[in-house]
Amino acid sequence: MRRIVVALGGNAIIQAGQRGTADEQQANVDLTCRQLAELVAAGYELIITHGNGPQVGNLLVKNELAREVVPPVPLHWCVAQTQATIGFMIQQALGFELQQRGIQRSVATLVTRTEVRPDDPAWQDPTKPIGLYYPEERAREIMAATGQVWKPQGSRGWRRVVPSPDPVAIVDREAIELLIASGAIVVACGGGGIPVIRRPDGRYEGVEAVIDKDLAAALLAHELRAEALLILTDVPNVMLFYGTPSARPLQQVTVSELRHYQAEGHFASGSMGPKVEAAIRFVSQDGHRRAIIAALDHARDALEGRCGTQVLPDNELRRVITTAPPS
Question: Is residue 218, in this structure, part of any structural domain at all?
């Protein structure tokens, strides 16, 4: 079977405008898993990863509200808890969808650790906002009491920020391989994985950080020797000049061309930027493979090359034409 890593965006679990109740999340995952089951039925071997930002944010709110009742838990515990919860929802939904199609496959969730470097520059410059917004006065009180870093986030107030170091290794890769070999469809590396650093004595230690889920998905796909990385989101294509009258979709693009557009500043760090970087990394590491960025509800068509942005290896030298919009 053709091995594919599928990276689910936040819209696969919580849609825009929803509160994120348990029923809402499960209903969204049910719809998502119909798409995934079609891929399994078509003969693809899936490894599934997903985001967890809103779910971790909710746990941090509970941490804060219940601080005087029960001890707050560290951020990496929150990542582990949400991996298990979202994995459970996927197991429930995908297992049912496969059963409806007469496919006898187990679905397994692995609480997964991702190694980061203790000397990553991100530790010196926390940038990833998480949790609640607070007025400056309250944010400064929390910083004084906890040592956390909080920064202003526009008109809504201040918010805690944490480092987002680069993933360097999937610690539990061998366990994932064993599950795949047993015939299981594996849900792994949720939320980018639980961030850990390796101490000199060999012990892994959880750290207060958030790993970008798309960069972790690219690393996971590389380490598992996947044929393709399929990044599913809420838009049909990567766009040049997004939000302007000159906007146009990218359909097929080589790594070199995409790097050029990236250097021109087309892809915002808070939205499409990490997905583009993940695609570049995966295809650069495995030159005969490809990455696809596409809408969730067009998963199979995108994987089979009929839509989405197809990121391809550099098979020939191409003259890069400037992408400056017309004046």
Answer: yes
Marked catalytic residue, from 9, 63, 213, 237: 213
62 given a catalytic annotation: no
- pLDDT of 324: 44
Q: One-letter amino acid identity for 34? A: R
**213 is annotated as an active-site residue:** yes
Q: At what angle do helices 22-41 and 75-100 cross, to 10 degrees?
A: 50
pLDDT exceeds cutoff 60 at 125: yes
165-192 residues labelled b (16+ CB within 10 A) or e (exposed): bbbebbebbebbeebbeeebbbbbbbbb
Q: What is the mean pLDDT of the chain?
A: 93
- Active-site annotation holder among 11, 28, 63, 237: 11
pLDDT at 321: 35
Task: Give the integer Cα–Cα distance in Å for 294 and 35.
Answer: 13
Stated pTM of the model: 0.92
Q: Which of 51, 52, 275, 308 is catalytic?
A: 275
User: Of 9, 128, 190, 192, which is the active-site residue?
Assistant: 128
Whether residue 157 sits in one domain with residue 65 = no
Q: List the CATH number of the domain containing 86.
A: 3.40.1160.10
Q: Both 133 and 239 in a single domain?
A: no
| pLDDT exceeds 70 at position 216 | yes
- Structural domain total, the chain: 2
- Catalytic site residue 151? no
Which domain range does residue 257 map to?
Answer: 2-114+167-312
112 and 48 in contact (C-beta within 8 Å)?
A: no
Assess whether 256 and 290 both reside in one domain: yes
Instruction: Tell me how far apart the alpha carbons of residues 153 and 165 are, in angstroms, rounded to a whole number.
Output: 21
152 and 136 Cβ atoms separated by less than 8 Å: yes
Structure tokens at 314: 């550099």
180 and 138 in a common domain: no
Same structural domain for residues 217 and 249?
yes
- Mean pLDDT in residue range 92-117: 98
Tokens of 15: 């849609």
